[in-house]
Amino acid sequence: MHLPIWKSRVLRETVIISIAVAAWGLGHVLFRAFTHWFIAQLYHGALPFHSLNHIIEGQSVHSLDYYIEYATPFSTVLSFTLAFVLLILVFARHPVLVHAISKRTGMTVAVLLLIIGVVFFMPFLYGKIGTYDEGIILCGAMRVCRGELPYQSFWSCYAPGQFYALGALFSWFGESPCVLRFYDVFIRSAIATACFILIRPFSSIIVSLLCYMVTLIWLLIFGFPGYPVYPAILFSLLALFSLTHGRSRESLSPPALAGLLAGIVTVFRHDMGVMIILTITAALTVFALRSAFYLHSTPFRIKEAMVFSLCAMMPIIIVFGFLSYAAGFTNLFEQLVVFPLRTFADYRSLPYPELSTLVPRLSYMRYDLIYRTSFFVFPIGIATGLLFSVIILVRHRELMTADKLLILSSIVGTAFVPQAITRSDFPHLLPMAIMSIVVIYNLLALCDRKTKRTVALPLLALSTAYFFLPYQGYRPRLSGDIAPVATTERQLVTMISNMNAGVSIYVGVNNHDRMTVNAPVIYYLVGGRFGTKYHELHPGVVTTAQVQKDIIEDLKRNDVRLVVLSEGFRVEPNKSQYYHSIDLLDSYIAQSYGIVTNIGGYTLLEKLKLTQQ
Length: 613
What we know:
The protein is mostly helical. It has helices spanning 9-43, 52-55, 64-93, 96-99, 107-120, 133-145, 161-173, 177-199, 205-220, 229-244, 253-268, 270-295, 298-327, 329-347, 365-372, 374-395, 401-415, 417-422, 426-449, 453-467, 487-499, 521-525, 545-557, 584-592; strands at residues 505-509, 562-566, 593-599, 602-607. Helix content is 63%, strand content 4%. Strands 1-2-4-3 form a four-stranded mixed beta sheet.
């Protein structure tokens, strides 16, 4: 069956994408509806079984909604299974749909996937504005947009890229949280699209689309809009794409472009960028040594590694060289190197989950299947990719492009492991998770190419069923206020605006000697009336005598009239849980400011007159 309509590559792949999405949606709707109906019938005793309240022993009587929520992960797995079966049946009945598809993805298809991703992530627009992480990015972008210099005018442990990227958008579209949310949604969608185009030339359309959809789904459960790790991941994927999809085998343009992209990663997340540059340079050097040993073609491969590393250094030298000159090398070194290596490791670290957490608890099945097991599933994917990479390096005399992609993505994924180990939470697991998804689906495509489909298809179904689990929490929403402010923060900001319009404020915590986070978003909501260079507070920094003295001097110099304090503490298994017996700032605030009111978890204080102090 050869139809003239299939001569258009873009049209062919667009139809395939539509079939895949329709099958996925149909399977999800049918099985979720069936699961909810079955649970309701079982709950009310309409089926010839015991009621649910007797099935789960040791549990108190729960509502119907409880059991539906309990069963949702399983309905998600079943929904994917049906969608997967429908795809297999469609492609088995019409093999021309598969064989007619070009291995090169057109730009139009990539744009289509990008648009689908943007629509998919629309619910992120309507989430409440974050008080800490999102507040840090908003404040940093606001300050650079007003001409302030990071690391000198304000303290930050983040690389400057996200501040300046969002600051540029602020200068064009206004200082609105809507700008950050749309920017964040675009970057997330671009990450999923980059995963698709990265493995598409080496895998079937089914595997490529599954990789795309899984990436979309896992980006759902990683919150923190505006987090700098998202553009860093995007440029990392684009660097891999440049290295493995170059049009000429003897051209130095792909490694040069990949080097520039890796250097840009450093501008957004300097820790990730340095690790990527080192690992990719090492991999390219290994490729050069293998070429010398097997193929006797050393010069070009050596040039490839050198061009990559030199081009990667260009953004670093330009950006950080300028900041070292303008803001001072000492400030830059202390905030971007000393703090992450020493202070962050002591005061922000979280232990890695133990192996015992792999066994899911019956009453917390959804939480355990998604959150706990992910800290083991994704490292296993990276480790498997490294194992196959070693086998390929040993057994293959000449590396194919798909082999290089597997090796490079596995090594880059390994470079992201230190983040997940230092602070073992979801935001720091994300870079390794995305790269592990690329590795896993690349391996599955490799098995499929080697005609080992009896192994590839069950593994593909099993792994994708697990990866689809977070989808159960997806709530479509396309209306409402974008980045709404919580009621407590709105009331507080209204009161501050009515009391003293235009004066500087300070946003701190009740106890600066024992704290975890503050609420920098308050600075942003009142229009950026920063009373100090420390709009973001960290344990190990604000708990030191020198920083508390600096903040006191800022409060005096800027004539700060209002102070906002929050609880700002949660127990974590690191040094932030201990007292340091440094109460300089708390004593000064207690002596110089009086309580005006308490709103929610915030305390608003106003500066006392000299006769009252």
